[in-house]
Amino acid sequence: MAAEKITKRLVDALKAPKPSTDGVKVRETFVWDKELRGFGVQVMPSGLKSFVIQYRTAEGRLRRSVIGRFGLMTVEDARDLAHEKLVAVSKGVDPVAAEAEATGRTTVAELCDWYLTEAEAGRILGRRRRPIKASTLTMDRSRIESHIKPLLGRRQVGALKLGDIEAAQADIATGKTAKARKGSRGGATTGGEGVAARTLSTLHAIFEHAVRVGKIPDNPARGVRKLASTPRDRRLSRTEIERLGKTMRELAAEGEHPTGLAAIRLLLLTGFRRLEGLGVERPWLDEEEGAVRFPDTKSGAQIRVIGQAAVNLLLEQPRTESKFFFPADWGDGHFIGVVRVLDRICERAKLTDVTPHTLRHTFASLAGDLGFSELTIAALLGHASRGVTQRYVHMDEALKMAADRVAQEMADILDGKETIQHLRRRGAPHAQERQEAGQQAMLATP
Questions:
Q1: Computed over its alpha carbons, how large is the radius of gyration of the chain?
Q2: How many domains does the chain have?
Q3: How many CB atoms lie within 10 A of CB 317?
Q4: Are 261 and 398 within one domain?
Q5: Residues 395 and 272 grouped into a single domain
Q6: Closest Cα to residue 195, out of 178, 213, 180?
Q7: d(C-alpha 194, C-alpha 244), whole Å
Q8: What's the chain look like in SS3?
Q9: Are residues 251 and 374 in the same domain?
């Protein structure tokens, strides 16, 4: 309704919205004051009239709040109170959030929004006392919007019980918040025990951050029992790697996405995490040292040694204007469709339960089969250092040799070639051993 000067006479004359004749639900109507912007009167279909204020927070969120009921509060008192609150808004204060916090009425959704705003501004510190990474916040936002808000968003934090939180965890595990993929590019929202446990960890962390800065008095998730998810230890056997490689060659001949095929091969040759492999930039490759210098990873900045087969694969990628070895089909980002390509390959190869992380497990498994130690494998995978010794295992010759050996073995299996490890298992001598044996035979010949 058009803005008018709100007076007692005007409010008395306001009528309740008329019932709809087309079955559409009737909503409340508003009259806004023409002198005090953001001050108005709300009229409900029942005829109830209330004074309200409406404003935007410093973060741009639209807020609307009832400040009193007409009949219990005069127009003059309502105007004075509205003026006081709107002045606070002009100074950057969110009066609705401040009152909710003071009375313990902050909702889970409001607290999650506060966390995302503060974390994105770098004002909340995460692991190793550093600002929370953008990739972590992306996952947090996804869990908040997909699972936490639908199940607990409207609940007041102060009224939550452990049982409420564990019930939400059970709902996520059983797929209550799962949603199908939207369109051709949107991601699906899944459930399951792993998703439920990780979502609960996110919620617990949000509450802990809020407690530490005095946003809420206690963490209602403290002591909650998280589901023990079954670790995913799927890895490809030698036979499955051979089948995967054969199928990749077949699909390449049929026009499968070359960037996706190359990215999958790199993940197998290096053990990189999915986004590490897809996001490798050309300046990061140290060709002479045989390493990729990541400015940031899940475990911080790292120099990751890779085998010569992996270096060659990167150098073989067509040069474009993009800084990435695996550029997106459009835009300035890196390629993101590797999961779809991998799914098509595995469907043709009749391989099940294979994800990009399976390729990382497969790399580690092959390194173990070749006899390399857990410390060496951890260094190749870029696991966080757990001791003083491991900090120095990053660029030594032994590690370079290990990276070369594993990458070449993986490449030979993918390409359907006989490998050193395979020959030894069948009892065939190593090429160098055959050469030495031949030389000894020649010397022994009279």
A1: 31
A2: 3
A3: 18
A4: yes
A5: yes
A6: 178
A7: 27
A8: CCCECCCHHHHHHCCCCCCCCCCCCCCCEEEEECCCCCEEEEECCCCCEEEEEEEECCCCCEEEEEEEEECCECHHHHHHHHHHHHHHHHCCCCHHHHHHHHCCCCEHHHHHHHHHHHHHCCCCECHHHCECCHHHHHHHHHHHHHHHHHHHCCCEHHHCCHHHHHHHHHHHHCCCCCECCCCCCCCCECCCHHHHHHHHHHHHHHHHHHHHCCCCCCCCCCCCCCCCCCCCCCCCCHHHHHHHHHHHHHHHHCCCCHHHHHHHHHHHHHCCCHHHHHCCEHHHEECCCCEEEECCCCCCCEEEECCHHHHHHHHCCCCCCCCECCECCCCCCECCCHHHHHHHHHHHHCCCCCCHHHHHHHHHHHHHHCCCCHHHHHHHHCCCCCCHHHHCCCCCHHHHHHHHHHHHHHHHHHCCCCCHHHHHHCCCCCHHHHHHHHHHHHHHCC
A9: yes
The answer on 302 and 158 residing in a single domain is: no
In the block, tokens 């400015």 appear at 295
Q: Looking at residue 298, which CATH number applies to its domain?
A: 1.10.443.10
310 and 373 housed in the same domain: yes
Q: Which domain holds residue 36?
A: 8-102
Per-residue pLDDT of the chain (446 residues; tens, 9 = 90+): 556 789 999 999 999 888 766 666 678 899 999 999 999 999 998 889 999 999 998 878 888 889 999 989 999 999 999 999 999 999 888 887 777 666 667 899 999 999 999 999 888 988 777 888 888 899 999 999 999 999 999 999 988 999 999 999 999 999 999 877 655 454 566 778 889 999 999 999 999 999 988 888 889 999 999 887 666 678 999 999 999 999 999 999 999 999 999 999 999 999 999 999 999 999 999 999 899 999 987 767 889 999 999 999 999 999 999 999 999 999 899 999 999 999 999 999 999 999 999 999 999 999 999 999 999 999 999 886 544 444 444 457 889 999 999 999 999 999 998 665 555 555 544 444 444 444 443 344 33
How far apart, in whole angstroms, are the C-alpha atoms of residue 409 and residue 406? 5
Query: Residue 221: inside a domain, yes or no?
Result: no
Tokens 């694969």 sit on residue: 313
Instruction: Give φ, ψ of 328 to 5 degrees.
Output: -70, 160
Burial of 196 (C-beta count, 10 Å sphere; 0-12/13-18/19+): buried
Amino acid in the structure at residue 77: D
